[in-house]
Task: inverse folding
């Protein structure tokens, strides 16, 4: 069963207390961050603290490590350290194209790779990045993207829409996971709820988060609701009954249900099962 990624919490790898605390947090996955959340003079200590933290049990939570870019003085050592650590994926920042994945893949033979989608060039190369054979997931880096675009922050995220849409199309074309960017105002619950709803409507699997207070909102926003689950069950039941009578279409609540809707309904039930399994 595919793992859910409703909530993906960044934790600075320099913060041993927060990494320990995360073992009990209701997050689907964790990004242990060696990059932007760690100051330059704390990079080496953070790498050691991360190695210690990863000896602990994180239960069903996905363990993703964001390394520094290979163009920095820390990137290659980060990648070599990750090759020896128990983790589920390595997240590469500032990816511009598939060559950036090749270079990290050469240092880390087996672990799945994820790409930060946060440069204008990455938006234009999204299809090639998504098609890289080692890529498992994409994370939107909307802060860096806004910086490079020179765009203004807007509640409706209009300036982000072209990039978000291109990355979603690319990820879905290749069957990759894709997680939305962070919401910086971590005490603004209403703003976060709105942005999660927008990301969910667009098709993202979940949202990256910066504070534990954001977890419950993202987990709720990206999970199927009880109504959606009930409707999915009724659609499957109605379609199977129609199919048994040689008909290719059923009607539920005044709307047609065809094969493709049943596929969506089954995927939704699988997602609900995967979420329920996280809670056990
Ligand atoms: C934003 C913060 C600096 C706020 O920290 P703080 O002031 O300590 O918050 P609180 O006092 O409310 O914390 C309460 C307790 O929760 C723990 N905590 C806080 N944040 C986390 C976390 N992320 N994971 C786990 N636990 C966390 C505190 O330790 C407190 O615990 P306790 O002491 O037991 O009471 C801080 O939240 C933070 O550093 N957040 C992460 C920031 C980060 O990782 N930034 C980089 C990723 S975002 C990014 O790079 C975007 C992307 O690349 C782009 O371009 O868009
Ligand atoms: Mg960034």
Result:
């Amino acid at each position: 069963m595919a793992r859910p990624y409703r909530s993906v919490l960044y934790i600075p790898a320099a913060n041993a207390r927060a990494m320990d605390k995360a073992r009990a947090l209701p997050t689907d996955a964790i990004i242990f961050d060696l990059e932007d959340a760690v100051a330059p003079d704390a990079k080496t200590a953070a790498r050691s603290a991360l190695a210690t933290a990863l000896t602990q049990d994180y239960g069903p939570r996905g363990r993703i490590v964001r390394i520094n870019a290979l163009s920095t003085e820390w990137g290659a050592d980060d990648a070599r350290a990750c090759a020896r650590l128990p983790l589920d994926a390595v997240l590469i920042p500032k990816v511009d194209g598939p060559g950036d994945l090749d270079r990290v893949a050469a240092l880390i033979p087996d672990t799945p790779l994820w790409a930060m989608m946060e440069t204008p060039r990455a938006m234009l190369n999204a299809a090639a990045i998504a098609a890289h054979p080692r890529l498992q997931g994409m994370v939107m880096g909307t802060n860096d993207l806004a910086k490079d675009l020179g765009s203004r922050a807007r509640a409706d995220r209009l300036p982000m829409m072209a990039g978000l849409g291109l990355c979603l199309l690319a990820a879905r074309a290749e069957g990759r996971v894709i997680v939305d960017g962070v919401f910086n105002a971590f005490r603004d619950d209403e703003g976060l709820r709105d942005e999660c709803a927008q990301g969910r409507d667009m098709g993202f699997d979940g949202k990256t988060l910066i504070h534990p207070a954001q977890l419950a909102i993202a987990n709720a926003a990206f999970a199927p609701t009880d109504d959606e689950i009930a409707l999915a069950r009724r659609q499957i039941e109605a379609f199977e009954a129609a199919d048994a009578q040689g008909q290719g279409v059923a009607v539920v609540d005044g709307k047609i249900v065809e094969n493709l809707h049943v596929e969506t309904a089954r995927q939704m039930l699988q997602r609900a099962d995967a979420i329920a399994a996280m809670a056990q």
